[in-house]
């Protein structure tokens, strides 16, 4: 029996990383392509998943036996704050259409993607899979967060009523090739890579917003890709799994900026604008459940992953999302 794996959001940061891993890991290995597998990486131009008819058509075309659902309206803090209803509604529509089409087409396995933004604002740290619904999310992104939380609720309901094998992943901050490098609306690493590149090119200072002290867990998109492949093939439970490096691998924003300066080869003036808000000092997530299930998963060292990401950006500047 052949296995058809549909990756929604297959053209984004995480989708491209899954494609890379499937093509570059040895065939037949834990994360490589298996002989009976056909992988489909769908873009929004092929099917706008906010629309049930287009979603159904995509499923009819490919008849996926397995789905990794990454497609989402994604954005930085500013966009999330400004368009709360849009983030809520569009993500609810996308998720409902994908989950229901997966049910109707008897998809054997569906792994959807949440985010650590779903966690309550006031919560005990480290974050664990058990406290997703224990209080309201931060008000800045409550639209996106509630839409994503609802996927976990739907997964349980589809399992209880219809026995569906649906589950979800909760990644921490992702970075890597094919990121969104928009200066206004990107995450911290791609935003700083782009800023540092421009500072070098224009011989202007490289100014990092905030004190540089906050700590974050960053996961390299190609490591995350392997974990999605693991979850699709080896994890059969509805409860979500946090996909992250360990709490002992938090990196400060200053360490991120230092590594970017080195990778870009920037030698000009480099400062921190301490008048800009820092955000939360740290919000560690536990990867204990993940490690207990995967065994010996090896994460790429942060600097190595960052160097690869910067190299990709420099080589692909003309085609990157900037
Ligand atoms: P990107 O912004 O890089 O990619 C988003 C993908 O979703 C693109 O392939 C895009 O297609 C697709 N998409 C968006 N809207 C629609 C639509 N209406 N119909 C069909 N496809 C659509 O996102 P990431 O790769 O960063 O994110 C992937 C998943 O990971 C998301 O669910 C996100 O919430 C989650 N996540 C991301 C984190 C991060 O740090 N980046 C952290 C935690 C979770 P196209 O480009 O063709 O328009």
Automatic annotation (TrEMBL):
InterPro entries for the chain: Epimerase_deHydtase (IPR001509), GDP_fucose/colitose_synth (IPR028614), NAD(P)-bd_dom_sf (IPR036291)
Pathway note: Nucleotide-sugar biosynthesis; GDP-L-fucose biosynthesis via de novo pathway; GDP-L-fucose from GDP-alpha-D-mannose: step 2/2
Enzyme class: oxidoreductase
EC number(s) from the headed UniProt entry: 1.1.1.271
Pfam families according to UniProt: Epimerase (PF01370)
Keywords, in A-Z order: Isomerase, NADP, Oxidoreductase
The organism's place on the tree of life at top rank: Eukaryota
Membrane-traversing stretches: none
The NAD-dependent epimerase/dehydratase domain, residue ranges: 5-246
HAMAP family, per database record: GDP_fucose_synth
Family as reported in the entry's similarity comment: Belongs to the NAD(P)-dependent epimerase/dehydratase family. Fucose synthase subfamily.
Name listed for the protein in its UniProt record: GDP-L-fucose synthase
